Amino acid sequence: MKQILFDRVSKSFDGERAAVHRVSFEVPAGSLVVLLGPSGCGKTTLLKMVNRLVEPTSGRICMDETDIRSLEVTALRRQIGYVIQQVGLFPHMTVGENIGVVPQLNGWKREQIAARVAELLELVHLPPEFASRYPSQLSGGQQQRVGLARALAADPGVLLMDEPFGAIDAITRASLQDQLIELQQRLRKTVLFVTHDVDEALRLADRIAVLRRGELVQYDEPCALLSRPADDFVRELLNADDRVRQLGLIRVEAVMRPLPPDFRPGVLPALESSADLRTALSLLLQPGVQALEITREGRPAGVLDFEDLRSRTCQPLQ
Amino acid sequence: MIASWLYAAGHQAEVLEALREHVLLSGSALLVAVVTCLPLGIWTARSRAVSAAAINLVNALRVIPSLAVLFIVVPVLGLSTRSAAVALILLAMPPVLLNTDAAFRSLDPAVIEAARSTGMTRLQILVKVEFPLAFPVILTGVRTAAVEVIASATLAAFVGSGGLGVFITRGFALFDYAILMVGAVPVALLALMAEGILAGFQKMARIPA
Fold first, then answer.
1. Which chain A residues have a beta carbon less than 8 Å from that of B209?
2. What secondary structure letter does DSSP report for A276?
3. Taking burial as the number of CB atoms within 10 A of a residue's CB, which of A31, A40, A242, A287 is the most buried?
4. Which one of B118, B135, B139 makes the best mutation probe of the A interface by having the most chain A beta carbons within 10 Å?
5. Number of domains comprising chain B
6. Residues B69-88: what's their mean pLDDT?
7. CA A146 to each of CA A128, A178, A251, A311: distance values in angstroms, whole numbers, following the listed order
8. What is the pTM of this model?
9. Is residue B100 part of a domain?
């Protein structure tokens, strides 16, 4: 778990207009930040500067206050998991060997690696016998699970994901997104996630950095972004006026109220905090339901009623 | 055929010696070509411009027949095995170089990027990822080179450095097909054998798809 700081980072390729221009923001440790913007906005370039696949022209990037340029590049990369849209599994290695690449580079023992591979396959919901298969024998969704397992293998503090679900069919993509949310709740990595898919961004992000033509337009929580878009570009990009659609994308925990002091658990209908507001709304629309008990891992964590939904949801201000 | 068999039986020692020379000459020419062209091909593949230049140069040189190369080299190196070796090395180089270059240029950039992102050093990426993936294509080049070299090593007889070509030139001179066959058939068999062995290697190195 590491904090990442971008400090006036710029990048221009061969004297062209800057691909990234003076971008500064901070990714809090353990949070999932989405870099969102149309293609060519510099989000991938920004991401690749974190593991130094691309070097900034000016500015600096720090991980836990350490300038990443002061670290050896191979050492830096081994602390950062990297998942890309094309997956990039090594086709001549088995799934197990693919996942074990970084542990092996770090000099782990055979049995240690085998145990870790088994653990990771379970984590990404793949059967253990997949370890001996080759990438070409897997479906696209399965390959990306392996890609994720490979990135997590040496338990890196930071995870960089570049449109990881972009080439995957809609149904599998939704299930992978759910899994990422679930994984993130358990592992609490610092995740930087690039996408141009607004729905995906709203579903996954703790915070969203909206980029346009290499510049950071707005950096905020999903709700704040929807209710206070910095300009028309952000408003249109997020389709901030369509509130019904937003309900399906925002998690209950973002708008729930803390438990009142006189709260008695088990009285109200319960809902997991990771559920979306649409589910919450359909429960609230049932006759006789005044409010919901929001639970986290089975324990009460907050409450939500219709008024909360209306007043605390991301409403665009007119 | 029977005449060839009788001739070979009568000159057993000479045939075996010629076979040995032939294998040695082809083998060493091939080895030198691989050892030089492998790094060269890896290097040319790094840059599109260098790669294009190398390919064009090599293709231009390829047009010169080995026999001509031999007559260019002989005044310099004399009537020797060295002259024959130079001609054969030049013959073996293009397929090895072109295939190595093509193999490395056609590697999936996403796979290489993934390799870099895991924190492998350049050498580790080359050894663990790039080379294993390029190997089957490189081997195709080596196969082509091997067959060409084994066939062309018959030319060595022209410059007096032996090999199975001795019987071919002798048969030609004496207008005796039987003697010619004593050289030609083993050359063909050798080429087929080399092809078979390398194909076997290639099968082992195949990337699961």
1. 91, 136
2. B
3. A31
4. B118
5. 1
6. 85
7. 12, 16, 27, 42
8. 0.84
9. yes
Say which CATH number the domain at B183 has: 1.10.3720.10
| ipTM value | 0.82
| A66-67 and A58-63 beta bridge pairing | antiparallel
Domain A250-312 grouped into CATH 3.20.170.30? no
Nearest-by-CA chain B residue for A48: B117
Chain A residues with CB under 8 Å of a chain B CB are 51, 53, 73-78, 80, 82, 84, 86-92, 101-102, 105, 134, 136-137, 147, 150
Partner residue opposite A75 with nearest CB, options B108, B119, B132:
B119
What homologous superfamily does CATH list for A4-246? Answer: P-loop containing nucleotide triphosphate hydrolases (3.40.50.300)
What's the whole-number average pLDDT of chain A? 90
In a domain, B17, yes or no: yes
Cβ separation of B118 and A82 shorter than 8 Å? Answer: yes
Which residues make Cβ contacts (< 8 Å) with residue B57, sequence separation at least 6? none
Rounded Cα distance between A130 and A137, Å, is 9
DSSP label at residue A275 = S
Q: Chain B interface, mutation test: which of A47, A90, A152, most B Cβ atoms within 10 Å?
A: A90
Residue B131 included in any domain: yes
